[in-house]
Design a protein that fits this description.
Strands 1, 2, 3, 4, 5, 6, 7 and 8 form an eight-stranded mixed beta sheet that branches. By secondary structure, the protein is of the alpha+beta class. The protein is built from three helices and eight strands, in the order βββββββαααβ. The chain is 32% helix and 39% strand. About 14% of the residues have low confidence.
Length: 208
C-alpha cells in the first residue's frame, strides 16, 4: 500500500499469518501533570495495554509482533498487522490489526496516524500562511500609523491573523478527510476486500 501525501509517499507494510504465543497485559500508569493556570500539579491515571504474538509467514519464517493496544486473539487465529511509515524512513507505526477469524478490524483514526507520522511535515510551506498572518499584527499598525490610524491597523492585523488560522484549520480538515479516504482504500487493498467494509466485519477504532 502507498499513499501520496504532498511531496512524500506514505507506505504500508503488511504481515499476515497464523497466531501463536499470544501475550496480553494491562497496567495502570500514573504520570505527573501540570495545571498552567495556578502552577498546580496532579497525578494523571491511565491504562497501558500491550499485545504481542508470533505469526508464521507464508515462506515459513516466524516473526514476533507487538502493539500497544488490547487486541482479542487466540492461538490459531489468522491475523494481519498493517504498519505505516514514510518511504525510505526508519520508523514504521502500527496502523491496524485485522483478525480474519473473528472478522474484527482494529484501527487507529486518521488524526492519530497523521500525528504519529508527522503528516503535516509532508506539505511544504504549511506554516507560511499563519506566519504571515502573525506578522501582519505588528506590520499593519506601523503601516497605518503613517496615516494616523495605528489602532485601526492593529485591528486589521488581528483580523488577518484570525482569518489565516481559520484557513489553516479548514485546509487541515480537508487534508485529514482525504487522508481517511486514502487509508480506507489502502486498508481495503491490503486486506483483499471487495469493498469498505465487507458484510460481517466489525470495526473498533482507537483514538490513543
Amino acid at each position: 500500500m502507498a499513499v501520496q501525501i504532498g511531496r512524500k509517499i506514505l507506505e504500508g507494510y503488511v504481515l499476515t499469518g497464523k497466531v501463536y504465543g499470544v501475550e496480553q497485559n494491562s497496567q495502570v500508569v500514573y504520570r505527573e501533570e501540570h495545571i498552567p493556570l495556578n502552577n498546580g500539579k496532579y497525578l494523571a491515571r491511565s491504562a497501558e495495554n500491550k499485545t504481542s504474538w508470533w505469526i508464521k509467514l507464508g515462506d515459513g519464517t516466524e516473526k514476533q509482533l507487538r502493539i500497544t493496544e488490547q487486541v482479542p486473539m487466540r492461538d490459531g487465529h489468522e491475523v494481519t498487522l498493517i504498519y505505516t511509515g514514510w518511504r525510505n524512513a526508519d520508523n514504521m507505526y502500527a496502523a491496524a490489526v485485522f483478525n480474519a477469524t473473528t472478522k474484527q478490524l482494529y484501527r487507529y483514526t486518521a488524526p492519530v496516524i497523521a500525528r504519529r507520522v508527522n503528516f503535516g511535515g509532508a506539505f511544504g510551506g504549511g506554516c507560511l500562511i499563519p506566519s504571515l498572518g502573525l506578522a501582519a499584527i505588528p506590520a499593519m499598525p506601523i503601516a497605518a500609523s503613517s496615516f494616523g490610524m495605528g489602532w485601526f491597523g492593529f485591528g486589521v492585523g488581528l483580523v488577518i491573523f484570525a482569518a489565516s488560522i481559520v484557513h489553516m484549520l479548514r485546509v487541515g480538515g480537508r487534508r485529514i478527510d482525504q487522508f481517511e479516504k486514502d487509508l480506507q482504500s489502502e486498508f481495503q487493498i491490503a486486506l483483499g476486500w471487495n469493498k469498505w467494509v465487507p458484510d460481517g466485519v466489525s470495526i473498533v477504532t482507537w483514538t490513543e
